[in-house]
């Protein structure tokens, strides 16, 4: 459980205090404005951040496992090395965000915007990316094994040496995508 109440967290953020490494597990920060905050290495597992504005936030190395981020704004956020396993990011804006080496196993990214995001080396196995926009995203060396990319837009995306084994790409847009060296074994609808 979080070491701070919602009001204490918001007051700390209001004064510009860093919450890097803080235990904020289970905290309810829904609808909060937290632009450019430092949550690096923080434990936000099972936290509620629905419709929060985290534009430009530093969440690198943070534990966001099973966190509810539905409809959140993470534009240009740093999520490098973050644990987002089983996290709900449906309808969220991750445009221009950095998720290098992040764990997004079984994450819900349905309808999310990941245009120009850098997911180099990220684990997106079994991720749900139906209707997600990944235009010009960098997915090099990504693990997309058994991911669900139905009707997703991968226009201009780079998937060099990505693992797409068993992924579902039915009606996905791949025009201009670079799939050099990608493992396409047992891909459905690609």
Short structural summary:
With 190 residues, the protein is low in regular secondary structure. It is built from 1 helix and no strands. It has one helix at 6-14.
Describe what this molecule looks like in 3D.
The protein is elongated and about 50 Å long. The chain contains one helix and no strands. The model has no long low-confidence stretch (mean pLDDT 97). Helix content is 5%, strand content 0%. The relative contact order is 0.09. The longest helix has 9 residues, at 6-14. It has one helix spanning 6-14. It is largely without helices or strands and 190 residues long.
Task: Present the secondary structure layout.
Layout: H1 6-14
Keywords:
single chain; 190 residues; little secondary structure; 1 helix; 5% helix
Radius of gyration, whole Å: 16 Å
Percentage of residues in DSSP E strands: under 5%
Name the quaternary structure.
Answer: single chain
Unreliable stretches (pLDDT < 50, length at least 5) are: none
- Residue-averaged pLDDT, rounded? 97
Large-scale geometry = elongated
Order of secondary-structure elements:
H
From the helix content, strand content and strand pairing, which structural class follows? little secondary structure
Count all strands and give the number.
0
Give the N-terminus to C-terminus distance in angstroms: 43 Å
| Helical coverage, percent range | under 10%
Q: What is the count of helical runs?
A: 1
């Amino acid at each position: 459980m979080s070491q701070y109440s919602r009001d204490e967290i918001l007051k700390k953020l209001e004064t510009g205090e860093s919450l890097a490494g803080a235990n904020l597990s289970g905290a309810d920060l829904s609808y909060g404005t937290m632009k450019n905050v430092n949550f690096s290495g923080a434990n936000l597992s099972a936290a509620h951040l629905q419709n929060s504005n985290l534009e430009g936030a530093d969440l690198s190395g943070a534990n966001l496992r099973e966190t509810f981020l539905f409809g959140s704004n993470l534009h240009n956020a740093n999520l490098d090395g973050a644990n987002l396993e089983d996290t709900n990011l449906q309808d969220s804006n991750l445009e221009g965000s950095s998720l290098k080496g992040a764990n997004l196993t079984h994450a819900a990214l349905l309808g999310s915007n990941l245009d120009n995001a850098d997911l180099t080396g990220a684990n997106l196995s079994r991720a749900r990316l139906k209707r997600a926009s990944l235009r010009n995203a960098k997915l090099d060396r990504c693990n997309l094994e058994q991911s669900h990319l139905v009707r997703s837009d991968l226009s201009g995306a780079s998937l060099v040496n990505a693992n797409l084994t068993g992924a579902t790409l039915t009606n996905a847009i791949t025009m201009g995508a670079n799939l050099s060296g990608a493992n396409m074994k047992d891909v459905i609808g690609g």
